[in-house]
TrEMBL record:
Protein name: Catalase
One of the record's GO cellular component terms: cytosol
Catalytic residues (positions): H75, N147
Lineage of the organism: Bacteria, Bacillati, Actinomycetota, Actinomycetes, Pseudonocardiales
Catalytic activity annotation: 2 H2O2 = O2 + 2 H2O
GO biological process terms, semicolon-separated: hydrogen peroxide catabolic process; response to oxidative stress
Family, as annotated: Belongs to the catalase family. HPII subfamily.
Co-factor(s): heme
Function field: Decomposes hydrogen peroxide into water and oxygen; serves to protect cells from the toxic effects of hydrogen peroxide.
Compositional bias segments (type: Low complexity): 5-17
Residue ranges constituting the Catalase core domain according to the UniProt record: 28-416
Keyword tags: Heme, Hydrogen peroxide, Iron, Metal-binding, Oxidoreductase, Peroxidase
Length: 538
């Protein structure tokens, strides 16, 4: 090993973490001194005042006082479990990542979540669900941080604080806790019509999943894949559940939220406990890496657009099996830190402006959520690949770096042998022409079409799915205090589909407005009519 290699953490060697089984014959302080009594503080006589010298009392109370860390600013409520991913080898012609090779087994940790609610909110609310998977690959950690909806609300990450401020509870009353039924949310999405496609999915049955085990997952953004020869292609990631996609009825979701707010986490843990391990097939849609970065006229850098599977089939590349529950929720689920920039060789980012903001945001929030820059040394975040970094010191540093020269090149620690062979590493930038022109705050014209895909989505639904969608819009908009917001959202729906708008308007007792945007007419074709329908179980 290079002299720079860290020692003594056990992280990179896979040695056992610091487990405290809370068994044993005697209790100790955090420094190992045996205690004979933890029920009585040290007092001056049985009725006397408590003495400041009682170290055990002070340690016990002080530690308790600092038990809480901030919940995630979004996706605060979640449940996570361990599993394995096995590559099929079918992706090796387009992606050199070792974990995708045939038969390679990679340990994973998957966290499912709601987006808006606080850590103690109910599971079955109408919301997008997070679907984040950490692959501990032999070439470094790969985090696929996705959602159960294939598109996002906004096209540029600079609006992320705005949409989240709008979706979180109202600042004055902290209402509602975990639903989209409120004025600020509808105020935002009716004013930012790029959100329409995501809102359509969110008002559909997809936003009230029956179980985490029965949800699809999507990487949303387009990524760039690199093959062994350096050739590139563009790709979107999909998770397909073996149990199929199933939803709750809205009435069921509401009742369950009261009767069993832990419904989804209980379902996940109980299934694994009983040996019914949920499985998902990972698939990719692959597109040629052209200078335009479009496919069949669809801008691949626009995260509010899908590419219909009929135009680009999802090709299976491996299988995820979740098979082990957590031992300690805080240590694992609460402390896990995902990052869209954790990429292995063979997977790279594109210039999607939403993705670029995410590349900054996750590490930034984790610096404060997990108390400093060393959170990747927390056991659940430790890579299973060898680590040889020059990152030093900082709060909660557990690694003992043995090198004396944490810089490169150096002549004291035997140089930097690890820089050799860099061409096989990650973050090898693919030569690309960067956009010409002046610096500007703008978006491409291709980002301006906000209604064609929402219209495709609506027209692809079955009658009962349409009915649920109409009822969801009517229910949620009915909760708004401001009439003007309802009317503005109806004008948005008029641009999606006249029938949808008329039905929601009737439900709200309001007149249906006319469309203001010229509709790119989309005849429901047999191919596109598949959109939004359930994935059949095997
Ligand atoms: C957390 C997905 C967009 C900021 C998460 C989590 C998921 C997720 C699944 C939960 C991670 C976990 O379980 O620990 C997505 C998807 C997005 C998106 C699919 C769009 C396609 C964004 C954007 C930003 C952002 C644009 C900011 C610019 C955050 C932050 C967290 C988070 C700060 C909390 C992370 C933590 O505390 O560990 N996101 N997100 N996300 N996301 Fe996103």
């Amino acid at each position: 090993a290079s002299p720079q290699t860290r020692t003594a953490t056990g992280a990179e060697t896979g040695a056992a973490a610091d487990t405290r089984e809370q068994r044993g014959e005697y209790l100790t302080t955090s420094t190992g001194a045996r205690l004979y009594d933890t029920d009585h503080s040290l007092k001056a006589g049985a009725r006397g005042p408590t003495l400041l010298q009682d170290h055990h009392l002070r340690e016990k109370i002080t530690h308790f006082d600092h038990e809480r860390i901030p919940e995630r600013v979004v996706h605060a409520r979640g449940a996570a479990v361990h599993g394995v991913f096995v590559g099929y080898g079918s992706a090796t012609n387009v992606c050199k990542a070792a974990f995708l090779a045939e038969g390679v087994t990679t340990p994973v940790f998957t966290r499912f979540s709601t987006v808006v609610g606080s850590r103690g909110s109910a599971d079955t609310v109408r919301d997008t669900r997070g679907f984040a998977t950490k692959f501990y690959t032999s070439e470094g950690t790969f985090d696929l941080v996705g959602n159960n909806i294939p598109v996002f609300f906004i096209q540029d990450g600079i609006k992320f604080p705005d949409i989240i401020h709008a979706a979180k509870p109202h600042p004055d009353r902290e209402i509602p806790q975990a639903q989209s039924a409120h004025d600020t949310f509808w105020d935002f999405v009716s004013s930012h019509t790029e959100a329409t496609h995501h809102v359509m999915w969110q008002m559909s049955d997809r936003a009230v999943p029956r179980s985490y085990r029965m949800m699809e997952g999507f990487g949303v953004h387009t990524f760039r894949l690199v093959d062994a020869e350096g050739g590139t292609s563009l790709a979107k990631f999909h998770w397909k559940p073996k149990l199929g996609v199933h939803s709750l009825l809205w009435e069921e979701a509401q009742l369950i939220a009261g009767v069993d707010p832990d419904f989804h986490r209980r379902d996940l843990f109980d299934a694994i406990e009983s040996g019914a391990y949920p499985q998902w097939e990972l698939g990719i849609q692959v597109f040629p890496d052209t200078p335009e970065q479009t496919f069949d006229g669809i801008d691949l850098l626009d995260p509010t657009k899908i590419v219909p599977e009929e135009l680009a089939p999802v090709q299976p590349v491996g299988m995820l099996t979740l098979n082990r529950n957590t031992t300690n929720y805080f240590a694992e689920t609460e402390q896990v830190a995902f990052h869209v920039g954790h990429l292995p060789p063979g997977i790279d980012v594109t210039d999607d402006p939403l993705l670029h903001a995410r590349l900054f945001s996750y590490i930034d929030t984790q610096l404060s959520r997990l108390g400093g820059p060393n959170f990747n040394q927390i056991p659940i975040n430790r890579p299973h690949a060898p680590v040889n970094d020059m990152l030093r010191d900082g709060f909660h540093q557990h690694a003992v770096h043995s090198g004396v020269a944490p810089y490169k090149p150096n002549t004291l620690d035997g140089g930097c042998p690890f820089m050799a062979g860099v061409e096989t590493g990650a973050y090898v930038e693919v030569p690309q022409v960067v956009a010409e022109g002046v610096k500007e705050r703008s978006a491409p014209a291709s980002f301006e079409d906000h209604f064609t895909q929402p219209r495709l989505f609506y027209r692809s639904l079955s009658p009962v799915e349409k009915e649920h969608l109409v009822r969801a819009f009517t229910f949620e908009l009915g909760k708004c205090y401001e009439q003007a917001i309802r009317e503005r959202q109806l004008r948005v729906l008029a641009n999606v589909d006249a029938e949808l708008c008329a039905l929601v308007a009737a439900g709200l007792g309001l007149p249906a407005p006319e469309a203001t945007e010229p509709a790119a007419e989309v005849a429901p074709s047999p191919a596109l009519s598949q959109l939004g329908q359930v994935w059949p179980a095997d």
